[in-house]
Amino acid sequence: MVLLAQYERFEYSKGLKICHIGRGSWQRKIRTGNIALAFFALLFILSIGCSNSKNRDAQIKAALNQQLKQDAVSLRVNIGRVGWKCGVVPGLAEGDDLASEPRYRAAQKAKLISVTPDDPGFWKVELVNPSPQMVQSLKDFHHNVQEGCDSFMLGFVIASKSVADLVNVRKVASGNTEAEFTWKWTLSPHFGASLVDNLSEKERAEIVPYLSQSRPQADFKFNLMDIPGSTVTHTGTKMLKESGNGWVVDE
């Protein structure tokens, strides 16, 4: 009897309830234990399902962002030794000052680059305080070497699209997956913010025609003259398919 009482206390400490002591108590303990095990097994299965769903959603968001960033808006300039003879700066003619060209003037005023005369008709364009990671990555850039020039083109990302929320994910008849989501433009915290903070409204208006976008046909274009209006949330849908261990947008 003492042993049975100790076992009952052990059962209670595990959260299992025994209603009576005596005939049939062992069967009730077994049934109660089985119910508890089944309950915990169900919780385990549900937790795996939730984990898989979260992992899938995270992968789909990553695939959507990968596709959306192709619409990024950038300000492109040449870094290195640049001159009017090279033809790398459209519109730059003999006698012109590179530092007065709208893109280079804006980038220099925003403290992204420095433009220094380097012999008549040439300028040295350098990045201002580049990170070690950027310096390392720039070593692989292709240089345009001709007519005394030695430079490469670099685009400062001013704004890019990103997923704000994944609204719904569902399978469609084709076997692919349709994702419904919301997205918005986000001003680049460094390059974009530097332009907005250091340029007057007139100066920003001057560089709008020079901003580049990898996909000109992209919808809801970013407007540097209307940051609040450009950064509102939009809705979108994309078809995706599984690829390897992740997802890709199916276009």
List the helices and strands and how they pair.
Layout: H1 2-13, H2 25-68, E1 73-83, H3 102-109, E2 113-117, E3 122-127, H4 132-138, E4 144-146, E5 149-171, E6 177-187, H5 191-198, H6 201-207, E7 212-213, H7 227-230, E8 234-243, E9 246-249
Antiparallel strand pairs: 1-3, 1-5, 1-7, 2-3, 4-5, 5-6, 6-8, 8-9
Total number of beta strands: 9
Tally the helices: 7
Provide the β-strand percentage band.
Answer: 25-35%
Helices and strands, in order, run as: HHEHEEHEEEHHEHEE
Helix vs. strand class: alpha+beta
The gist of it:
This protein is of the alpha+beta class. Helix content is 36%, strand content 30%. Among the domains are: 56-72 and 159-189 and 212-249; 74-157, no CATH class.
Describe this protein with a few key phrases.
about 35% helix; about 250 residues; 9-stranded antiparallel sheet; alpha+beta; 9 strands; disordered N terminus
Question: If you had to describe this structure to a student in words, what would you say it looks like?
Answer:
The protein has 251 residues and is α+β, with helices and mostly antiparallel strands. Among the domains are: 56-72 and 159-189 and 212-249; 74-157, no CATH class. It is built from seven helices and nine strands. Strands 1, 2, 3, 4, 5, 6, 7, 8 and 9 form a nine-stranded antiparallel β-sheet that branches. A hairpin with a 5-residue loop joins strand 5 (149-171) and strand 6. The longest helix has 44 residues, at 25-68. It is elongated and about 65 Å long. The model is unreliable at 1-23 and 43-49 (pLDDT under 50).
